[in-house]
Write a structure and sequence with these properties.
Blueprint (H helix, E strand, L loop, with lengths): L7 E6 L1 H5 L8 H15 L4 E6 L7 H6 L4 H25 L4 E5 L8 E2 L2 H9 L3 E5 L9 H11 L4 E6 L4 E2 L11 E2 L1 E3 H7 L6 H9 L4 E5 L5 H6 L6 E4 L2
Parallel strand pairs: 1-2, 1-6, 2-5, 3-4, 3-5, 6-10, 9-11
Antiparallel strand pairs: 7-8, 10-11
Helix pairs in contact: 2-4, 6-8, 7-8
Length: about 240
């Protein structure tokens, strides 16, 4: 079995990652590519938890900005993450993995309720745990949910999967002169207002000294490179 730098990680996937080149919905080909990378490291003994967003189906913040009640919009967004979680579970199991979908909102017909000790036991048994429905509370993003779950499950790193190579000083999709930061501190991110994760999520990681690795999910093999300790993307940690 390959020696990894981390033995247990939480990977934060955006809903847009599941949409692929589409602007909306679920792209099975794209999900299969992601799941192949996850299966590759999970099969070699890495303990993997996932938190999935729902922006490819419904985005609560933008809907509340258009006049919908924020709490109602956020609950709709949580349900969208459950739909994504079911799709991810199906494709991971097609790769031969044993998975558990756990939701912060109880819906026992389709998923287990999220119970921390049970989730840890699943990880110890080398099952991939998919955490959906955010924190179960409105006004909290899935980034914050990812930080919270990473802490609860005693993950050694939070891997933030994105469409670009890491954290830049400007949007690299709009400005080709944007500069990649290989390393940042939590305070760098907060003080410069860098779009890594929301401030609540970064503050939670800072308080608990949890490293965050931001990397390009679309490049095959990057998950293995990150967990093996290679210099990939941007690492956010303390001084």
């Amino acid at each position: 079995m390959e020696a990894f730098k981390y033995q247990r990680v939480l990977i934060k996937l955006s809903g847009e990652a599941l949409a692929g080149q589409q602007k909306y919905g679920i792209d099975i080909v794209n999900i299969d590519s992601i799941c192949e990378d996850i299966a590759g490291v999970a099969s070699d003994g890495l303990e993997v938890a996932l938190v999935i967003g729902g922006g490819n189906i419904f985005r609560g913040v933008s809907s509340s900005a258009k006049g919908m009640d924020r709490a109602s919009a956020d609950y709709m967004g949580m349900l969208a993450t459950v739909m994504n979680g079911l799709a991810l579970q199906d494709r991971l199991e097609k790769q031969g993995l044993v998975t558990r979908l756990m939701t912060a909102i109880t819906m026992q017909e389709v998923a287990e309720p999220y119970i921390r000790r049970r989730a840890i036991r699943h990880l110890e048994k080398k099952r991939v745990v998919i955490c959906a429905a955010g924190t179960g509370n409105p006004y909290f993003t899935t980034d914050t949910a990812a930080s919270l779950r990473a802490m609860e499950l005693r993950a050694q790193a939070l891997l933030k999967a994105t469409r670009v190579a890491g954290v830049y000083d400007k949007n690299p999709e709009e400005d080709p002169e944007a500069t990649l930061y290989p390393k940042l501190t939590y305070l760098d991110v907060l003080q410069r207002g860098l779009k890594v994760m929301d401030s609540a999520a970064i503050s939670l990681c800072m308080d608990n000294k949890l490293p965050v690795v931001v990397f390009n999910l679309l490049e095959k093999g990057n998950i293995r490179r990150v967990v093996s300790g290679e210099s990939v993307g941007t690492v956010v940690q303390g001084e």
